UniProtKB/TrEMBL annotation:
InterPro entries: AKR, AKR_Detox_Biosynth, NAD(P)_OxRdtase_dom_sf, NADP_OxRdtase_dom. GO terms for cellular component: cytosol. Transmembrane segments: none annotated. Residues 15-314 form the NADP-dependent oxidoreductase domain. It comes from the Bacteria. SUPFAM superfamilies: NAD(P)-linked oxidoreductase (SSF51430). It comes from Streptomyces collinus (strain DSM 40733 / Tue 365). Keywords: Oxidoreductase. This is Aldo/keto reductase.
Length: 322
């Protein structure tokens, strides 16, 4: 495994982050395809044994059970000092007033629930899952800064939003001497590259590390176009993110993977790992082979010609996934 500094911080993260949305009780929350505790634990262990030290979950994943399962597995299999544990806040955890969002009240409540579920007294990277248009950004940034000062959080990060929103949050922190975001977890892969317009150049300029979510386009980049899996069959969100014309990109991945004699997933991840600001793609691994491919991708060097072939079929599209 290779490690990099996350953006301009001193924090060492593995070049693959394990996406823990895959782990959680299927009958809780909105993802019926998740793996329960018994099926999840060997994958967390395998990731650790492969040198992955970076784990990403969220309070909303499977209604908190992702945090519970992953937290317990990490307590059993890892040394807390060696791992980088990331979670998120913003999604709705309860119906009614103050059940979600980024108010001071929501943030202060949700960090304590996440710490309890994870079974730890601090989170390494606490990320806002989206921008909250109903809360003043000053309120959010000060509350996050206070969590850092209280020792509950080591670093803060953000996820999918417009570049102007991210920039506003960062300068609000600067103006008040509060903690800045060190990372941007955004939707970025060979089938969705709108982030190359504004967000990625902003992150490069500001020394912010990026952590692409759904780096394999939720599996579309890993198999024959049109193949349906248990997960993709019920993935309404994923169905809105990609276009029929993306087939030619998947075919380019297929050609290069066949020439190289490697699975498609390795080619798609290697392309992302070549991008300047990308610290670590957040890979969703439901089987041992998924982790093996992700780890192998770190050492796969693509030529300029191969990268050009992968990129040439992309058509710009409407921004989505925020
Ligand atoms: N911040 C956000 O808003 C946000 C949004 C989404 C995700 N995330 C984060 O990103 C993580 C990853 O998301 P994701 O699961 O959508 O990512 P992904 O890596 O693009 O998709 C994972 C799926 O791709 C397939 N796959 C993965 N590796 C494979 C391989 N080597 N060979 C063949 N198929 C393979 C599997 O599909 P099948 O199971 O269908 O076979 C797997 O479930 C999440 O766990 C979460 O931490 C964040």
């Amino acid at each position: 495994m290779q490690y990099v500094k996350l953006g301009s911080t001193g924090l060492d993260v593995s070049r693959i982050c394990l996406g823990c949305m895959t782990y959680g009780l299927p009958d809780r929350g909105t993802h019926a395809w998740t793996l329960d505790e018994e099926a999840s634990r060997p994958l967390v262990r395998q990731a650790l044994e492969a040198g992955i030290n970076f784990f990403d979950t969220a309070n909303v994943y499977s209604d908190g059970t992702s945090e519970e399962i992953v937290g317990k597995a990490l307590r059993d299999f890892a040394n807390r000092d060696e791992i980088v544990l990331a979670t998120k806040v913003h999604g709705r955890m309860r119906p009614g007033p103050n059940g979600g969002g980024l108010s001071r009240k929501a943030i202060m409540t949700e960090i304590d629930h996440s710490l309890r579920r994870l079974g730890t007294d601090y989170v390494d990277l606490y990320q806002i899952h989206r921008y909250d248009h109903a809360t003043p950004v000053e309120e959010t940034m000060e509350a996050l800064h206070d969590l850092v000062r209280a020792g509950k959080v080591r670093y803060i990060g953000a996820s999918s939003m417009y570049a102007w929103e991210f920039s506003k949050a960062q300068y609000t922190a600067d103006l008040n001497g509060w903690t800045r975001f060190v990372s941007m977890q955004n939707h970025y892969n060979l089938l969705y590259r709108e982030e190359e317009r504004e967000m990625l150049p902003l992150c490069a300029d500001q020394g912010v590390g990026t952590l692409p979510w759904s780096p394999l386009a939720r599996g579309r980049l890993t198999r024959e176009w049109g193949t349906v899996t248990e997960r993709s069959a019920g993935d309404a969100f994923g169905g809105r993110l990609y276009l029929d014309s993306d087939r030619s990109i998947v075919e380019a991945v297929t050609r290069i993977a066949a020439d190289r004699g490697v699975p498609r997933a390795q080619v798609a991840l290697a392309w992302l790992l070549h991008q300047d600001t990308v610290a670590a793609p957040i890979v969703g691994a439901a089987r041992p082979g998924h982790i093996e491919d992700a780890v192998a991708a770190v050492d796969l060097e693509l030529s300029d010609k191969e990268r050009e072939e992968l990129e040439q079929h992309y058509t710009p599209r409407a921004v989505s996934g925020h």
